[in-house]
Amino acid sequence: MSTPPTEPVVVPRRSHFVDLTPFRESPAFFRLWLGTNIANIGGQMTVVAVGLHVFQLTSSTSAVALVGVVGLLPMILAGIYGGLLADSFDRRIVALIAETAAWLSVIGLATLAWLHVDTLWMYYALTTINAVATTIVGTTRSAIVPRLIDARLLPAASALNGIGFGAAIALGPALAGALVSTVGVQWTYTVDAVLFLAAFVGLITLPAILPEGGTQRPGFSAVLQGFTFLRRAPNIRSSFLIDIVAMTFGMPRVIFPAVGALVIGGGAITVAVLTASFAVGAFLSSVFSGRLGQVRWHGRAIRNAVVAYGGFMALFGLVLLPLGSSASGSITDSFASANLPALIFASLALAGAGGADNISAVFRTSMLQSAVPDAMRGRMQGVFIVVVTGGPRVGDAWVGLIAATTLLWLPSLLGGLVIMSLVLLIVAVNRSFREYDALNPLP
After folding, report:
1. In order of start, what are the domains of the chain with their CATH numbers?
2. Assign residue 60 a region: left if phi > 0, alpha if psi is -120 to 50, beta otherwise?
3. What is the crossing angle of helices 120-144 and 72-86, to 10°?
4. Are 95 and 138 in contact (CB under 8 A)?
5. Labelling 383: which of 144, 207, 261, 324 has CA 20 to 30 A away?
6. Phi-psi region of 149 (alpha: psi -120 to 50; beta: other; left: phi over 0)
7. For 71-117, how does the pLDDT look when each residue is reduced to its tens digit (9 = 90+)?
């Protein structure tokens, strides 16, 4: 008598270290990951360089905040329409065209800096073009990933992306701080333009990737279909709302130049250390993410991670609270002038925030990629990218407005408390999100 076949036994991972299975099973995913994250190092260099450059030209935190605010509406439109393009055409071609536009905008920034053009609106215009193109690239790339790896590996792939992101925003700002303080913003922009070339390698080597189930006609009706789907997807909608809350009230990056100049001291190096600290936390949380793939209740995991994020942001504000400010400070001050104990505690708070944010991102990304059908994935990824990148830009305006009071500790302390309160409220009223099951992913 023959024995009936049995289902294979899945052995849970015992290691806490990141799962590298997506690299082994999908060389295409590995190439895309590697090229993207090399380019992202340069991109993060430019983010810091633009902020420092604008602060040098204006000595105004509000002017730094405007870098993000000016590009907000174009970026929102790019996310929505870029997602539609990803559902309408070969996703590889869409990403390549948008990547080219982003690369040319960085070359434009470098050219302006080398020619010593100090006209502020030109820098705003080029950073807006870069934001628009990068949004389309991110939207399309995220829609590509689930086609390259098995669904069971999506949390592992998200964690690997977290490592890449963490490395980029750790190395990029550190390099930017060193370059700006030694050879100037010109070389910083130029190095970004060179590193950007790696992104093309990861995309060019991909096969054609057309949406499954047929392409959409890129018109207004297809956009409406996306919003209709979102209206009927309470779990995806709640994940977006939670991220908007976290990024709007808990992203104090625009005060870093003023903190480096007026509060902690240390100038550009302090700005780089603070920015990199967030990335180090994200990086470490991904390195030790090996067992995240076994977490079943993703909604609860997102809630816990974002509440922790709010707590760490409030702690960062508390570190700044007793320090006051010094009108004699400058962004070009030597690092020797820094208040090292305050810098250490501030960096630890930001590292904790980065780790919590990354864990939240792992589960939010996995939820989106597994619960949304492929034919709709580009449009939902577009909304997701708008939330992820647009939230911090709204946050830039919030922080710039609050920081105008000269109370540089207030945005983070107040924002952290708001995040914890609102996230607990959102999850409490949405039972479906609390009970989201990774084994039965429903949008």
Report:
1. 21-434 (1.20.1250.20)
2. beta
3. 30
4. no
5. 207
6. beta
7. 777 877 887 788 888 888 888 999 999 999 999 999 999 999 898 88
